Amino acid sequence: MASFKLIFFSLLFLCISEIQAQKHPVFYGGLEMYRHTSFENNGFIKLSVGTQIYQLKLFAPEIGFDYGGGALQERSVFDESVFVDNLSEGLLRQRFTFSVLTLNPKLKFGEEDAYFTFSPKYHIGRLNGEAAYLEYSGNNNRYISLKEGQESKINTSFWSFHWF
Questions:
Q1: CA of residue 76 relative to chain centroid, distance
Q2: 50 within 8 A of 106, measured Cβ to Cβ
Q3: Tens digit of pLDDT for each residue in 85-134?
Q4: Which of 97, 109, 119, 160 is in Cβ range 3.0-4.6 Å of 69 for a Cys bridge?
């Protein structure tokens, strides 16, 4: 069991770091995860980090970076001429990764304690997608032979607008 001193100093450190986090530059970070338990290998994860550089009256620009990826549901691929005893011809596996830089000229309206923010974020990034067609191999019911694969890379940029 943790000692009283360890718990006390941990809480003290958390309180001090919370107070220090309100000074500029303000740093933020986040982790998002999703997994659909009904499917195998179907989910994504996203890691976000960034900072509000400074604040002048109502102008508070931010810069951030998002990185993540995921996998889609595996799909069985069937051939038109398959036999009843061997229905599954192959397996299609797909996954993706992304990296995005966000630039946000955030505007704050109101007092220090309570304010509304308008955040027009500009996103610049790259999306990578991979797909692999695995061939059914032998009597051991395994998909081990790569028959065909494809990789795609797309540069992207877009705006998103948020009111808080």
A1: 27
A2: no
A3: 555 567 778 899 999 999 999 888 887 677 888 999 999 999 999 988 87
A4: 97
